[in-house]
Design the sequence.
DNA sequence: TTGTAGGCGTTATCAA
DNA sequence: TTGATAACGCCTACAA
């Protein structure tokens, strides 16, 4: 007689069969108890539950997923966990995934424009994730990673911080609107030479902020001259250098919009160095509303983005795509969501300094 | 005859059998090609690979894990993704996991001392993760979540930022050494009234920094008087209030060690408000070396922790635990790793201001 | 070098 | 209400 295949001395993990044996019922009955399905007599249910507890049974989700053909997992592919916005967004993705009952795979790529995306996507497909949140900002030509033929191979996918386009589901902050708020606010404060320290213009988000500034100036009858613009790289150092360069190009600048809080911080340092008072000589505004920005000196006017919500909404959209019974149905259709940010006014842009305004600004 | 059970119209996913049929070989042969095992003739290998490509076959890791009894997944349970240190550490965990071939589950808990840990651990066990990185700092009594009976039920686990103890594998920064460096540095600069703004003392890490300060003062023959200490909550606001309180308690303070950079930032703001010059009147030092700290005004002396390495080392330790063939072997033994931080000296603690020091400080 | 049989732990079908 | 059995997609043992 042939020898039976016995893989290893029976593993530590208790299975349905063990529970069934212990409680003297069939495997299927135990399965029913575990999943609360079907009618089961109170007596057996009780007996089974006792066995489950005494043996320390835990269902094997791998096996369950194999037969049910869904893994109840999502994946987030992200860049920039060391930055405030991206890490908050990932946190939002995690929270919403958790609330909807998914486990979440985390995949970080070291650089938004030079990745090993193919192998990541291969792995995710092999793990049979039910959906993917693509949290890599659109930089340069990295959008082209998304090949049409991939989209068909992959599970439902939602893209963050990327230029909306038909056929893709996108969730992003309305950067253009945020930048417009900033520029309008500076104009309303009486500033007429409003300089700009942009993020790297290969970034879609940086270009959007640039456009918001530009459009608002034009609408106000002001000239968005090239001498008013310096391109930074999001870092505080580039903000420091950016302000110096800006003042060299255009000495009569009376306001500066730095396109994130880090660059604003650098610009603030440069202003101190150069003896320019903020806001008296130069008003300064940032973007992001990092927790620290309220404690810069002076406290920084900035734009609050609902970065956690970006992640949460992404998962909600993904969930509806996954749920949709037929790919033709409404909730399966690609959707675009733009979240409107909010201007947070603090002392760095206000001429009329209110002594109590700092305390007020702190939430 | 009994009807066969056919679950659904065959799914989109291509299986080994499909490839086998297409290429006219057995399932096992295809499996061998996929996994590069055994000897296979060049001809069949080629034929099979062609079929794999044309059909778009991807191995189902779920099925593979089911039989191999290992999922090739790790999980990180973390708190504080919105803070610099924790988020960097998670990034380190992800990088090292990826390099070792694991996929990583991300689980965030909203609060380090009031969690729903049991359900998270249940899920991870049910998903048969091969190991767990417990990246929740030790706060209050949250260490007691780790019940001895759980440790046996769970896969190998490594704990971060937690008081080392026999039986647990721990990776942490040597906070006490870091705080000692700071205090010694201030002493060496001639400061003799060195105040302390601590983190919440329910945190182990905060207590360690406190001890480092205290021990160093004692060793220097100075008195760590209670009036020199204020307890903060890591936030910039508490640093602001902390400095005010400290100066009220002990007006002749000539140096302040704020136990993280955020509180240092708040203290900096308060100093400006109160007209105290930094460092001339009060030297100020932080802890963390956040990227912004080099751009505070003045640039902040602080302590650089190798937070990414904490995550990487954790996964390395975990990997060795997982690999270990027998639980008695060396690499299976619990280990403690303390990473030594480094003092980063900038202008906020230096009396002799070097004009070029800021540029030097920027890396 | 290749194939067959059996089993991983779960769920679905259908009969009892 | 409960149970026997096939199937999910893959890998191991063993034979050919």
Sequence:
């Amino acid at each position: 007689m042939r020898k039976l295949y016995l893989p290893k001395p029976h593993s530590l993990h208790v299975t349905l069969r063990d529970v069934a044996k212990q409680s003297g019922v069939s495997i299927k009955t135990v399965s029913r108890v575990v999943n609360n399905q079907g009618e089961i007599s109170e007596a057996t249910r009780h007996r089974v539950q006792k066995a489950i507890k005494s043996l320390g049974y835990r269902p094997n989700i791998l096996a369950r997923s194999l037969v049910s053909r869904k893994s109840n997992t999502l994946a987030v592919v992200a860049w920039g966990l060391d930055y405030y916005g991206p890490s908050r967004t990932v946190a939002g993705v995690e929270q919403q995934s958790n609330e909807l009952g998914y486990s979440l795979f985390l995949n970080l790529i070291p650089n938004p424009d030079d990745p090993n995306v193919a192998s990541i996507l291969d792995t995710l497909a092999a793990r049979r994730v039910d959906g993917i949140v693509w949290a890599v900002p659109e930089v340069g030509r990295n959008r082209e990673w998304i090949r049409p033929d991939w989209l068909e191979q992959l599970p439902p996918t939602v893209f963050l911080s990327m230029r909306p386009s038909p056929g893709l589901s996108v969730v992003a902050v309305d950067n253009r609107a945020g930048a417009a708020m900033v520029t309008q606010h500076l104009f309303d404060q009486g500033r007429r030479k409003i300089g700009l320290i942009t993020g790297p213009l290969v970034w879609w988000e940086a270009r959007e902020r640039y456009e918001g500034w530009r459009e608002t100036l034009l609408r106000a009858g002001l000239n968005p001259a090239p001498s008013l613009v310096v391109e930074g790289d999001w870092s505080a150092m580039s903000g420091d250098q950016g302000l110096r360069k800006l003042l060299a190009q255009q000495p009569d600048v009376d306001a500066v919009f730095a396109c994130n809080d880090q660059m604003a911080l650098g610009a603030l340092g440069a202003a101190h160095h150069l003896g320019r008072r903020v806001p008296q000589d130069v008003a300064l505004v940032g973007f992001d509303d990092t927790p620290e920005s309220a404690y810069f000196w002076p406290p920084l006017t900035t734009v609050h983005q609902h970065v956690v919500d970006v992640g949460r909404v992404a998962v909600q959209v993904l969930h509806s795509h996954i749920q949709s019974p037929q790919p033709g149905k409404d909730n399966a259709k690609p959707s675009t969501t733009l979240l409107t940010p909010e201007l947070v006014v603090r002392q760095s842009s206000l001429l009329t300094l209110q002594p109590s305004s700092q305390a007020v600004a702190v939430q």
